[in-house]
């Protein structure tokens, strides 16, 4: 099946909520997060998974408005729970699915088959359930981050540092100053490049210290400059900071409009002098992309 073509929701902030907490799922769903991720994987113990599936189903079913922003992180395909997760939640029509710990594109294609069967069985348009894929959580996955162009259903890629550290046997993924080590910065870069190659949205991983909102702001603004278009969150307090960081400012919009206008007035010109510097076609492309983000092009 092809990538869903009707996905129009914003993808700046992706807020996790544990699937075994009715209260936390409700709070997340009522937040300003662009997308809410009800979590059936890491946030739920093995003993609670059956109960959590029912809670997630019921939470989805109870919200007829805005369900397209209510997604579910299922368990990874290398374990026994994925089909059980999907069978429980698909009748409630989740807005999308997050697939963790992929080893490569073949995992997405396998999940696509499962989803297609469950969509048909539940009267859902086949191929309409989108995916975000965690593409760096295993060592093998790191070698396949560029393989997702045209992968069925995929609308976004994101990365993770904790499971990658486990996968390679690292005792820590941080430098002495708190920054990520080389391997994990490489994972961030490979996720970004893979998303660009696939033509989908790149989403930054979580910041574990949800109290450090200034640090979150600086990091979110930095990765947005790098090319990321959204970020995962673990606490509602992070949502407003992330939304603001990934929303173009009025100054940025004004500058982009000016760049587009200059090229429109000079058709066929490849480079134009501008404010003591030079604009060329990549500047125009970036300006047009920013304006498309805010519906101004």
Keywords:
alpha/beta; two-stranded antiparallel ribbon; globular; 10 strands; 297 residues; 15% strand; eight-stranded parallel barrel; single chain
Spans of at least 5 consecutive residues with low confidence? none
Number of helices: 10
Q: Largest sheet at a glance? A: 8 strands, parallel, barrel
Mean pLDDT: 94
Please trace the helix and strand order, writing H or E for each element.
EHEHEHEHEEHHEHEHHEEH
**Percentage of residues in DSSP E strands:** 5-15%
Order of strands across the biggest sheet? 1-2-3-4-5-6-7-8
Give the overall shape: globular
Radius of gyration, whole Å: 20 Å
Q: Label the structural class.
A: alpha/beta
Query: What is the β-strand count?
Result: 10
Helix content, binned percent: 40-55%
- Give the CA-CA distance, first to last residue: 30 Å
GO molecular function: citryl-CoA lyase activity
Organism: Sphingobium xenophagum
InterPro entries: Aldolase/citrate-lyase_domain, Citrate_lyase_beta/mcl1/mcl2, Pyrv/PenolPyrv_kinase-like_dom, Pyrv_kinase-like_dom_sf
Enzyme class: lyase
Give a verbal description of the structure.
InterPro entries: Aldolase/citrate-lyase_domain, Citrate_lyase_beta/mcl1/mcl2, Pyrv/PenolPyrv_kinase-like_dom, Pyrv_kinase-like_dom_sf. GO terms for molecular function: citryl-CoA lyase activity. The chain has helices at residues 22-29, 49-61, 82-89, 105-121, 162-168, 182-198, 213-226, 239-245, 250-264, 281-293, and strands at 13-18, 35-39, 70-73, 96-99, 131-134, 154-158, 201-204, 230-233, 271-274, 277-280. It is α/β, with parallel strands linked by helices. The longest helix is centred in the middle third of the chain and has 17 residues, at 105-121.
């Amino acid at each position: 099946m092809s990538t869903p073509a009707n996905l129009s929701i914003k993808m700046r902030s992706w807020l996790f909520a544990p699937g075994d907490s009715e209260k936390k799922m409700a709070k997340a769903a009522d937040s300003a997060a662009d997308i809410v991720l009800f979590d059936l994987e890491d946030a739920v113990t093995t003993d609670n998974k059956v109960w959590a599936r029912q809670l997630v189903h019921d939470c989805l079913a109870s919200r007829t408005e805005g369900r397209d922003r209510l997604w579910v992180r299922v368990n990874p395909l290398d374990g026994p729970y994925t089909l059980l997760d999907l069978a429980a939640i698909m009748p409630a029509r989740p807005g999308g699915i997050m697939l963790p710990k992929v080893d490569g594109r073949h995992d997405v294609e396998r999940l696509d088959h499962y989803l297609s069967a469950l969509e048909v069985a539940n009267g859902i348009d086949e191929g309409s359930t989108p995916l975000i894929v965690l593409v760096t959580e295993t060592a093998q996955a790191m070698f396949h981050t560029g393989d997702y162009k045209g992968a069925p259903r995929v609308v976004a890629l994101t990365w993770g540092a904790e499971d990658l550290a486990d996968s390679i046997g690292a005792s820590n993924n941080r430098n002495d100053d708190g920054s990520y080590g080389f391997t994990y910065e490489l994972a961030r870069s490979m996720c970004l490049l893979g998303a660009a190659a696939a033509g989908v949205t790149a989403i930054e991983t979580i910041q574990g210290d949800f109290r450090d909102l200034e640090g979150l702001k600086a990091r979110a603004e930095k990765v947005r400059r790098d090319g990321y278009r959204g970020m995962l969150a673990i606490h509602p307090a992070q949502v407003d900071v992330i939304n603001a960081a990934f929303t173009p400012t009025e100054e940025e919009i004004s500058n982009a409009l000016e760049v587009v206008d200059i090229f429109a007035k000079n058709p066929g010109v490849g480079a134009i002098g501008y404010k003591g510097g030079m604009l060329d076609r990549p500047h125009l492309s970036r300006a047009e992309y920013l304006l498309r983000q805010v519906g101004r092009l």
